[in-house]
């Protein structure tokens, strides 16, 4: 475009010079007209060329068909930028989708792990369940032992046939003394010449430690010693039985009434002591966790334990066991809630045992009240004269 404009300008200048040089010298007016014409011709030519130049410039800017025009280059640049933007948006979308997919997979695995942890049985829960089953088995065995002790103690307290006091209290006293010297002879008894050697358990039938020193009574005589302690504590020798004419006379009927009341009170007292003894009777085998707990408490592990021992180990395990407390810290919420539920069940079970013992205590309290009232009534009636009743 610039070379075309230059050629046009040179051509016009040449025409003007040629026109001026070839014309002859004429009059002044004729020469002026020629100059004016040449100028008009040049202006006309220059206008057309300038229009072409403007048109060329406009086309170079706005012609969209020309790939080299500014508009085409701007359009191509904008299109490319738009393509870049769309590609970037698409890439970001794929990245976001990939992140969402990965996060969804992670959260799903995390949820599955949580579900697994929530439903997985905790080892401490299994150990507690085994111990609780041992406790229930020991409770059943304790009831059996209670029945066995009561079967022996009840006839003795009633001075039934075949028992030491059937023929008289003196016989019962003599039998109790001989029994003590045979099984529980002390050094004082030896010095008095009542027995020849000190027994393995001297005076065990009169010491509270015989029953309450350990939670499990050993099977090598400790159970019998605890039962003998109850006998010494409650009823060392039973009164003689009322038999024959003693039972059929008027005074005998009164004595029989008093004897039945006496037997009932003694039965209640002996039953409570037998109940305590039965809870300490070795009856169930301990598992490995219970033996480990006994060893951790500084006790000699036992092959068999009582209800009281099993219950004590289960309570102490949740108080002082390092293993259980360490497991508690790592337990998921569901396992902790199971432990809480177990604790509540255990508390309810112990509350039931307290309730049963409360029944015994209430019965004994009622007995004491009745005895006091009976003694006071008899004391008041003895001061009254016998009435005369006319037929």
In short:
The chain has 391 residues and is an all-alpha fold. It folds into 3 domains: 2-59; 82-120; 124-378, no CATH class.
Compute the average pLDDT: 81
Q: Output the helix-strand order.
A: HHHHHHHHHHEHEHHH
Estimate percent helicity. over 70%
Shape: rod-shaped
Number of strands: 2
Proportion in β-strands: under 5%
**Radius of gyration from the alpha-carbon trace, in angstroms:** 60 Å
Specify the structural class.
Answer: mainly alpha
Separation of termini? 169 Å
In terms of quaternary structure, the protein is single chain
Largest sheet: 2 strands, antiparallel
Question: What topology emerges from the helices and strands here?
Answer:
Blueprint: H1 2-22, H2 28-62, H3 70-119, H4 123-157, H5 169-183, H6 187-191, H7 209-212, H8 222-234, H9 245-248, H10 250-279, E1 284-285, H11 288-296, E2 304-305, H12 307-320, H13 322-330, H14 333-381
Antiparallel strand pairs: 1-2
Helix pairs in contact: 1-2, 4-10, 4-12, 8-10, 10-14
């Amino acid at each position: 475009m610039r070379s075309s404009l230059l050629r046009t300008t040179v051509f016009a200048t040449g025409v003007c010079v040629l026109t001026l040089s070839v014309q002859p010298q004429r009059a002044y007016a004729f020469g002026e007209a020629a100059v004016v014409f040449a100028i008009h011709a040049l202006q006309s030519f220059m206008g057309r060329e300038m229009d072409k130049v403007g048109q060329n410039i406009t086309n170079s800017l706005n012609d969209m068909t020309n790939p080299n025009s500014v508009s085409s280059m701007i359009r191509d640049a904008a299109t490319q930028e738009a393509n870049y933007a769309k590609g970037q948006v698409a890439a970001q979308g794929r990245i976001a989708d990939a992140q969402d997919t990965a996060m969804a997979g992670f959260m799903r695995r995390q949820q599955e792990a949580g579900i697994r942890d929530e439903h997985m049985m905790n080892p401490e829960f299994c150990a507690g369940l085994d111990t609780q089953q041992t406790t229930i088995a020991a409770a059943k065995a304790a009831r059996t032992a209670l029945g066995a002790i009561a079967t022996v103690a009840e006839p003795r307290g009633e001075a039934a046939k075949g028992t030491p006091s059937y023929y008289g209290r003196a016989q019962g006293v003599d039998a109790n003394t001989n029994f003590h010297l045979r099984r529980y002879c002390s050094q004082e008894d030896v010095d008095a010449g009542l027995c020849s050697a000190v027994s393995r358990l001297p005076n065990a039938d009169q010491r509270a430690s015989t029953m309450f020193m350990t939670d499990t009574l050993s099977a090598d005589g400790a159970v019998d010693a605890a039962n003998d302690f109850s006998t010494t504590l409650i009823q060392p020798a039973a009164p003689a039985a009322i038999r024959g004419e003693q039972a059929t006379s008027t005074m005998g009927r009164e004595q029989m009434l008093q004897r039945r009341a006496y037997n009932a009170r003694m039965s209640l007292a002996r039953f409570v002591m037998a109940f305590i003894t039965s809870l300490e009777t070795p009856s169930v085998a301990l598992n490995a966790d219970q033996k480990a707990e006994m060893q951790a408490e500084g006790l000699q592990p036992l092959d068999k334990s009582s209800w009281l021992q099993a219950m004590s180990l289960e309570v102490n395990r949740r108080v002082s066991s390092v293993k259980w407390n360490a497991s508690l810290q790592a337990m998921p919420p569901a396992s902790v809630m199971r432990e809480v539920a177990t604790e509540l069940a255990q508390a309810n079970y112990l509350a039931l045992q307290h309730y049963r013992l409360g029944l015994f205590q209430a019965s004994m309290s009622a007995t004491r009240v009745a005895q006091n009232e009976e003694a006071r009534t008899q004391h008041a009636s003895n001061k009254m004269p016998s009435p005369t009743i006319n037929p």
